[in-house]
Design brief:
This protein is mainly β. 0% of the residues lie in helices and 49% in strands. It has no helices and 24 strands. A 9-stranded parallel sheet has the order 1-4-7-10-13-15-17-19-24, with no helix packed on it. A hairpin with a 2-residue loop joins strand 21 and strand 22. The radius of gyration is 16 Å and the shape is globular. The termini are far apart.
């Protein structure tokens, strides 16, 4: 699907993007919103296919979970905002999960902004990012692996959430990103920051 600006809103249902059925490519902005009107916390957005802009922000808002996984063919989904644009992903009452595959969040020279009512990914299935800046807030543990040099900021606000950050190629800097300064944890949470 080619689009200049695209907004998809679903109420009391799930959005699923698969490799073979729904790729979005456009130069404008993309907004994806799964709303839970019945308050049953079951609306999710799942990526096993790509959502891409060549020069525009991408906003993903799920009332429950945002999931990066693989489809039946083993294909993974990426969310990619080109041209220095930003990617904002919010799981309002759930988590940002990455149970399988190599799907990633890519903002190129822009900023990846992550917000989760629960945690972000897991120790055995980290969330893959690629952006000049990555900032986050979560109530649970955070596991992010960044592809290259990056400025990190973020916090965990509950459940003694740990912060686990890895950069696979480049420098890992702790900075102020989008008004969030440094890295902080609540309670007994620990911070691990590694550049390989």
């Amino acid at each position: 699907l080619n689009a200049t600006d695209l907004e998809v809103v679903i109420r009391d249902g799930n959005l699923t993007f698969t490799e073979n059925s729904f790729d979005i490519t456009g130069a404008g902005t993309i907004d994806l919103d799964a709303q839970d009107l019945n308050s049953d916390d079951e609306t999710t957005i799942t990526f096993s296919g790509n959502v891409t802009t060549s020069n525009g922000n991408i906003t993903v808002l799920a009332d429950h979970d945002v999931i990066f996984t693989t489809d039946a063919n083993g294909d993974s989904g990426d969310v990619i905002a080109g041209g220095g644009s930003d990617v904002r992903i919010t799981a309002s009452t759930g988590a940002i999960n990455h149970p399988a595959g190599t799907g990633s969040v890519n903002a190129d020279t822009g900023t990846v902004l992550l917000s989760s009512f629960e945690g972000i990914a897991a120790s055995n299935n980290v969330l893959l990012t690629d952006g000049a800046n990555v900032t986050f807030d979560a109530n649970g543990d955070v596991f992010i692996t960044e592809a290259d040099g990056v400025n990190f900021s973020g916090n965990t606000t509950g459940n003694d959430g740990d912060i686990n950050l890895i950069v696979t190629n480049g420098d890992a800097n702790v900075d102020s990103v989008n008004g969030v300064a440094g890295l902080t944890t609540a309670g007994n949470g620990a911070i691990s920051l590694n550049a390989t």
